[in-house]
Amino acid sequence: MQDTHVSLAHGNGGRYMRELIEELFARHLANPRLDVDADAVAIPLPPGDVLVTTDGFTVQPLEFPGGDIGALAVHGTVNDLAVAGARPHYLTLNVFVEEGFEIAALERIVASLARATREAGVAVAAGDTKVLRRGEGGGLYLATTGVGIREPGRRLGLREVRAGDRVLVSGPVGDHGVAVMLAREQFGLRGDLRSDAATVLPLTEALLGIDGLRFMRDPTRGGLATVANEIVRATGLDLHLDEALIPVREPVRAVCEMLGYDPLYLACEGRVVAVVAPEATEGALAAWRELPGGTEAALIGTLSETRNRARAILRTPLGGERVLEELEDDPLPRIC
Amino acid sequence: MQDTHVSLAHGNGGRYMRELIEELFARHLANPRLDVDADAVAIPLPPGDVLVTTDGFTVQPLEFPGGDIGALAVHGTVNDLAVAGARPHYLTLNVFVEEGFEIAALERIVASLARATREAGVAVAAGDTKVLRRGEGGGLYLATTGVGIREPGRRLGLREVRAGDRVLVSGPVGDHGVAVMLAREQFGLRGDLRSDAATVLPLTEALLGIDGLRFMRDPTRGGLATVANEIVRATGLDLHLDEALIPVREPVRAVCEMLGYDPLYLACEGRVVAVVAPEATEGALAAWRELPGGTEAALIGTLSETRNRARAILRTPLGGERVLEELEDDPLPRIC
């Protein structure tokens, strides 16, 4: 392939598209089962319940400290399967790339995506590329669908949550949101701030063996506060969060204070929020803290019955309380 | 939902996005198994080999005679499973919608998409929406991944094709390409030209019972000529097509002559090309001709050994021969 930039002909089903698929996608996503000539491919699966999830990715900039849109597309979809209690096995990949996009940048992103699939132990089973006309489409959008297997009969979900249950988070929140914002805005504040984008599979698998695990979710768009509101809305319970217990890295806190963001509403891409029975709290925290991605895991809140409209309530370090409202205006669009 | 146009807040994970999902997507795509609050959903499947396929859709205009991007996204993915010999069961849906897009138009397209899922007997198991900044992204892009089940041990594919095999097409070619082109260019030539966009599932299921079925494909981007080249490249056989036998509707032929297009390179979205053993030809044609979508099914070519570089060769009505070269420059970008 001699071209340096993507042209409309790379999306037309003909020779240029075949070369792009063979020489770029198939080379990085080497999968002996991937038949690039087939309309649909067989995906051998172990026994269990089949789960699917899907996500689109439009993050800007496409590359940022700690990750890029390619790795994010894998982590995001792998993580949605992981928090549902499934082991991810396959992904499908849709690429929407703008005419004129630099092929070297596309290759860098596809190579990063491929690395993320190897880390998570998933194979790209099928893919498709469409070329968008120049000036339409901010360079590159991705969509990934994941297929995973969950142990049959596994009870996990918001329906399992009870009053008295505890809420845990696997690590500091807001890193991804702040890292992408700083990469975008070029405040010259970057410092050591990196996205937390990573597979959460080790974190979720560590909890699957623990009795009393009720629910897991990865706080992405809308952050921890949005997960808190989802729990409240689905269960009708009050969620009491203790701000002093919620891990937020010092540079994230500093940037948020300077710019007026609330870290509880900023996206993470490598964290897990879990709800567990009270007696499972210590075991779950201990299991997480043994893992590289869980050393700062913390108990951050408790669920209780309410007589009013159920709310997510944050106790501040000074002893006050404020309601974590559902997100309306987005502080940071295009974060994933 | 009181908004008339999509805003960035509809993609941010908060209240506006939840309302868009609940009041527009979930309402049209009513699926009792679809849990809009879950990260990943279980998809019960009958026994058999699990197949996946994925496709992106960027057609312009979004609505055209005979279809729209919503129906096309379903047909395209259902059809890829169908020609692989699978029965489609589930889709995932990714929506990339531009800020400022009219919600009434989005609803029309989602309703059409929902109708197509009901026709094909598939359920949307998971979805995701991202909002693109105004001026980026031509209104709406879709990506769909399909999951289907194929009878175990079914041998179907380019590897099964042999010299002497016959090539059939289920109906006239080029309708979709010409219909979209005319809708786009507003030549005032529309007449009765409509896209052939439809599920091909009845056509593929009619052939699955026939001994000697080797391979099926739906000729989309790049048209019949591109499928011919794929067969040639994968088998190393010459493919002899007889132009006089290839069904092309009269108005499609007239528009192509006027504008200098070759209908053999134009996309179809509801046709099947099948390769069958010689003795299966009559049975396959008879099975197709009983179906509403197959009344104009035809035998159009034969495969043979070659001593040279294998080629797709078209015999013209005047007795001449020309090679159908692999597509390079796209006559009609953004056709699907």
Automatic annotation (TrEMBL), chains A, B:
What InterPro entries does this protein's entry cite? HypE, PurM-like_C_dom, PurM-like_C_sf, PurM-like_N, PurM-like_N_sf
Domain PurM-like C-terminal, first and last residues per copy: 162-307
The PurM-like N-terminal domain sits at 39-149
Pfam families registered for this protein in UniProt: AIRS (PF00586), AIRS_C (PF02769)
One GO term (biological process): protein maturation
Among CDD domains, the record links this protein to: HypE
Family the entry assigns? Belongs to the HypE family.
> What PANTHER family does the entry give?
CARBAMOYL DEHYDRATASE HYPE (PTHR30303:SF0), HYDROGENASE ISOENZYMES FORMATION PROTEIN HYPE (PTHR30303)
The entry's protein name is: [NiFe] hydrogenase metallocenter assembly protein HypE
Organism, as annotated: Acidihalobacter prosperus
